[in-house]
Structure formats: C-alpha cells, structure tokens
Amino acid sequence: KAGVTQTPRYLIKTRGQQVTLSCSPISGHRSVSWYQQTPGQGLQFLFEYFSETQRNKGNFPGRFSGRQFSNSRSEMNVSTLELGDSALYLCASSLAVGQINEKLFFGSGTQLSVL
Amino acid sequence: GESVGLHLPTLSVQEGDNSIINCAYSNSASDYFIWYKQESGKGPQFIIDIRSNMDKRQGQRVTVLLNKTVKHLSLQIAATQPGDSAVYFCAENRDLGNEKLTFGTGTRLTIIP
C-alpha cells in the first residue's frame, strides 16, 4: 500500500506570493491533517479535514487554508507569503476522526523556502 | 529580531548499547501516546503507541513506558544501530476536540559507531 504522498518536495517562493501544496493520503484513509514544522516552533497543527470538511483548526492566520476533495486528497494554500512561513509542511492521514487510537501516518513533507 | 530556536535535547549512545529517551507530557487527561522517529529529510514515522490503561508496551527492540503519576513517557531502544540515529518525538492526544495529536519538542539521538 502506498504511503502518504506530498508534492512538490521543495518550493522556493518570494514574499507576497501564494503557494499550494498537495497531499494524497494512504488509500482508504479519510482524514488528512496538516502540520507545520520549524526549528523554532517544532510541529504545529494547522488543520484537519474529513469527508471534505474542515473538522479542526490550529492557531494560524487566515492566510493558511486548505480543502479536501471527494477522493480524500487534500491541498493547503498559503497566501501573501511571509519569511516566517518558511518551514517543512507535513501532511498526515488516518483512518477516521475522533477515535482514541488515532495513528497518524506522515508524508515526507514539502520544504517551503520564502525569500 | 533574531529568532530563538527550540533547544533540542540530544543523546549520544554507543552502537549496541541501549538508549532511553524521555518525554514529559502536559495533560493528565491525555489517554493515548505515540512515539515517532524522524530521519533527516523525511516525515515522522510511527514507532510505537500506548494507551493510558497500560504502563508498558513492547515492540521490536523498542519499549514504551508510561508513568501517569508524574506524566512521563519514555522510549527504550535496545541494541542501538546506526539507523536509529534520528529525532524522536512523543505525541499525546491532548485535546481531541481541537487537534489530533500534540507533539513534544523532540530528542536528537546519535548512535556512535
């Protein structure tokens, strides 16, 4: 079974631009979560989608948004990029939402550099 | 201004020795815990999990211990190998109403050949 796939692997953007990152979950997984990882803040939760609906949201500004498609694939978008948005963006999938034994399976991430 | 990065705890262990990585979790109501391993250039990889109704769980070369009294979690890796070099994160399901898992800051484990 293929793992979580994230594209692109690397991105370089300039301040003010916008960016879209893509994530394909493990087949059969319906929940997709996004995390931002930086040396300064560690792993920070962005949002979670299940059945095309955002179920949970972390403490990030509205410039960060996402969506999920009917095939469970997900995209996240960051508009008006700032230097501080440089980070590794990780997507994780799981079978269902809100269950106690909720293992997250991560992709390799998209490394975003904002210049 | 200059940003201050997280001070990542580090642990160096001789190849073949056992290692213990510790984690203090924050919420006494958390009832599920996971250890993840993250190698350079990769996403976190699931290692082992434990529910709060257990105090010990064993996997292949790894053991997780949970002490709910002091909110402490540890990961023991037996007979360490060079491939064990990575950053290890503990995670707790601190608040199912808001986020799925909350991650600790991580510990960098280096295996010395």
Short key terms for the protein model shown above:
heterodimer; A: mainly beta; 7-stranded mixed sheet; 0% helix; globular; B: 113 residues; mainly beta; 6-stranded mixed sheet; disordered N terminus
Textual characterization of the structure:
The complex is a heterodimer of chains A (115) and B (113). Chain A is an all-beta fold. Chain A has strands at residues 5-7, 10-13, 19-24, 31-38, 42-50, 53-57, 64-68, 74-78, 87-94, 105-106, 110-114. In chain A, the strands form two sheets. In chain A, strands 2, 4, 5, 6, 9, 10 and 11 form a seven-stranded mixed beta sheet that branches. A four-stranded antiparallel beta sheet of chain A has the order 1-3-8-7, with no helix packed on it. Chain A starts with a strand and ends with a strand. The model of chain A has no long low-confidence stretch (mean pLDDT 92). With 113 residues, chain B is an all-beta fold. Chain B contains no helices and ten strands. In chain B, the strands form two sheets. In chain B, strands 1, 3, 4, 8, 9 and 10 form a six-stranded mixed beta sheet that branches. Chain A binds chain B through residues 4, 31, 33, 35, 39-43, 45, 48, 56, 58, 90, 92, 94, 97-98, 100-109, and chain B through 3-6, 31-32, 34, 36, 41-46, 49, 51, 89, 93, 96-106.
Draw up the topology in text.
The complex is a heterodimer of chains A (115) and B (113).
Chain A: E1 5-7, E2 10-13, E3 19-24, E4 31-38, E5 42-50, E6 53-57, E7 64-68, E8 74-78, E9 87-94, E10 105-106, E11 110-114
Parallel strand pairs in A: 2-11
Antiparallel strand pairs in A: 1-3, 3-8, 4-5, 4-9, 5-6, 7-8, 9-10, 9-11
Chain B: E1 10-14, E2 19-24, E3 32-38, E4 45-51, E5 56-58, E6 62-67, E7 72-77, E8 86-92, E9 102-103, E10 107-112
Parallel strand pairs in B: 1-10
Antiparallel strand pairs in B: 2-7, 3-4, 3-8, 5-6, 6-7, 8-9, 8-10
The major beta sheet of chain B can be summarized as: 6 strands, mixed
The total of helices of chain A stands at 0
Structure classification of chain A: mainly beta
> What percent of the residues of chain B sit in helical stretches (DSSP H or I)?
under 10%
SSE string of chain B, helix = H, strand = E?
A: EEEEEEEEEE
